[in-house]
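Box 3.1 A note on notation
Throughout this textbook, protein chains are presented in two layers. The first layer is the amino acid sequence; the second is a token string describing backbone geometry. Keep the layers aligned when reading.
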Amino acid sequence: MTDDQKPITEDYNTSREKMAIPEYGRNIHKMVQHISTLEDREERNKAARTVIAIMGNMNPHLRDINDFKHKLWDHLAIISEFKLDIDSPYEPPAISTLTEKPKTVPYNDYPIRYKHYGKILEQMIMAATEMEEGEKKEALIQMIANHMKKSYLTWNRSQVTDDIIFNDLRELSGGKIDRGSELRLSESKDILSRTKKKKPTRKFVPKHQQR
């Protein structure tokens, strides 16, 4: 069989060797493999520094991150499967760190008295109670009360009286915020009209363009 008659072998990514860090691409992985074949240690060190520079140029937006160079050398070690014998300026990461399971993130199960207000709003109310009397405190209380009304209507789109908001505000603040009729809240209809999603408008298409 002549060379012209030999079957063409398709080179698909699925048939290629899996890359340790795909973000760097196959060329970087091939460069690292080539470095491991160099017999002279100084030549390997020089080639490794060149690859590190290329890897850094591929991610210029990460240059401001702390220990950016350290991260690049760690990636080089991972790509080489920790087989590259070079003089790295950093201690390579332990192989076990790549296989260990991530630590469980604890879930903060805070007791929330009124779920439709949420925990953050409750924390804002408590912060307002600790503020000194003055315009800033009153402005914050006004904003909190309006947000409470908006949250209530989002949860229950029926009308809600301002007295309900005032009572909830007094209860959540432990009785420290009792403004009652002193506050002027937005009308329910205005809040609902602002939060109501607009229906998407259909783009006009001439009949001769319709299919």
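The chain has a mean pLDDT of 81. Residues 135-155 form the longest helix (21 residues).
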